[in-house]
Write a structure and sequence with these properties.
single chain; 452 residues; alpha/beta; four-stranded mixed β-sheet
């Protein structure tokens, strides 16, 4: 797909429903009793993979034009799929579903596409095994060597979580069994790890506690509480869940996805003469780091009509072209709140007037692609002055973008970020593999062109 320089973007837009919340609405509705009704569900490939997996396990899910109806069978009402569960490209599905499957009375095999089969699963295998789960990487794609402790045994790698070279990948074989609650400190702030363990904790015999180094997105905590789980959180990034709750179906109105809104936020700020109103966007503080970054960079951004929907804060976001953006430092506890937005933030930073430094973002290396490396390479190819670091990058600013041929590497966030860069570049920007946006935002290109 080709992109050319635009002189302005004007109009209103409503982005699709939040991907994280859409996934969870189906998962939690499936293990609750009764009907869960979901409006503004994201009809992207990832979320449709979640629906497919739960249908294979005996859950009736109606996908109508305006809502999703999930008829849950209760906490212990799933049945064996009798076939391999395929999550497609969805890391959220494979990791959260693994937590649920670990406590079932049947065995499951779960896999995904070539990208999923390269993403690390040891980060959930280790703590689930500590809970008593029988979960392992199959098909010869687990690799491990000597533990830091000097014990080369696989069991020590899992039990101690100290192996420096162990990695495991999908497909995963999960033999459901009784679980025991644990207290576990995650090595990284990850909503997928946290949610996996909290969901496994529903099937444990004692409470399960997850402690993070920084607070990751908290949609699981908010939504599980809404379904009736007993879950407490504390200021030191700790969440504790009690086992065997009586979950009941609820109504969920999914807010617009701030990760999808991010591309239009940045497009409005960096494209001359632009004004964009993005309506009904979820602004949960654990997700809204990009808003804080924009404010730090002196962007003309305003939150309007603040309100709550289903326990989640929602707002309309108005942005106006800001020619005097300034750089900033993005690091530490901010990173989990904007981890998916770093590629588009880097695009904005390249056009700012002063240097931006991004640190502590090594998690981007194990997303759908190595987003740190690809963002660096693509921005450099378009004329930006960037220095790559082990955990981020230093972006000098004052770039003048020129078009180039770029590869999305089948990563939807790379494709959308560099579409925005392309409409601010001279010449033609050709995006290879542009159709991967179907994973999270099937109508992205049309919505962008409607603002021209």
């Amino acid at each position: 797909m080709e992109f050319t320089k635009q002189t302005r973007l004007r109009g209103e837009i409503t982005v699709p429903g939040d991907k994280s919340i859409s996934h969870r609405s189906v998962m939690f509705g499936a293990i609750a009793s009764g009907l869960t009704e979901v409006t503004n569900f994201l009809q992207g490939a990832d979320c449709l993979s979640t629906i497919s997996c739960f249908r294979q396990m005996g859950i009736t899910i109606e996908n109508t034009t305006d809502k999703i109806l999930v008829r849950g069978n209760g906490l212990h009402g799933l049945t064996s799929a009798n076939t391999t569960l395929d999550v497609g490209n969805s890391g959220t599905t494979i990791r959260l579903l693994s937590g649920i499957l670990a406590g079932q009375s049947f065995s499951s095999t779960i896999t995904g596409d070539s990208s999923i089969q390269k993403r690390p699963m040891d980060r959930i295998i280790a703590p689930l095994t500590k809970m008593g789960a029988d979960i392992q990487s199959i098909a010869g794609n687990a690799a491990y060597s000597t533990c830091v402790s000097g014990n080369a045994a696989y069991s020590a790698c899992i039990t101690d979580n100290t192996c420096s070279a162990y990695s495991a990948f999908a497909p995963l074989e999960i033999n459901g069994r009784s679980l025991t609650g644990i207290s576990y400190q995650t090595p990284v702030a990850s909503a997928q790890i946290k949610s996996c363990l909290l969901l496994a904790g529903l099937y444990a015999d004692t409470p399960t506690t997850v402690i993070e180094p920084a607070l990751s997105r908290n949609h699981t905590e908010l939504m599980l509480s809404g379904f009736g789980a007993t879950l407490t959180t504390s200021a030191n990034h700790t969440a504790t869940i009690l086992p065997n709750p009586a979950l009941e179906g609820i109504k969920i109105d999914v807010p617009g996805d701030i990760s999808s809104a991010a591309y239009f936020i940045v497009a409005g700020l960096i494209t001359p003469h632009s004004e964009i109103l993005i309506k009904n966007v979820g602004v949960n503080p654990t997700r809204a780091g990009i808003i804080k970054v924009c404010q730090m960079m002196n962007a003309d951004i305003t939150l309007l009509n603040m309100r709550y929907a289903g326990g989640e804060p929602v707002a309309d976001i108005f942005v106006r072209y800001t020619p005097n953006l300034t750089g900033c430092v993005i690091e530490g506890d901010m990173i989990p709140t904007l981890i998916d937005e770093i590629p588009i933030i880097a695009v904005m930073a390249a056009l700012a007037q002063t240097q931006t430094v991004i640190r502590n973002a090594e998690e981007l290396k194990v997303k759908e692609s190595n987003r740190l490396e690809i963002t660096y390479n693509h921005l450099t190819a378009m004329g930006a002055d960037i220095t790559a670091t082990n955990d981020g990058m230093m972006i000098e600013g004052n770039a003048t973008f020129h078009g180039n041929t770029l590869d999305s590497f089948d990563d939807h966030r790379i494709a959308m970020a560099f579409a925005v860069a392309g409409i601010n570049a001279s010449g033609i920007t050709n995006m290879m593999g542009a159709e991967c946006v179907n994973i999270s935002y099937p109508n992205f290109y049309q919505d962008l062109q409607n603002l021209y």
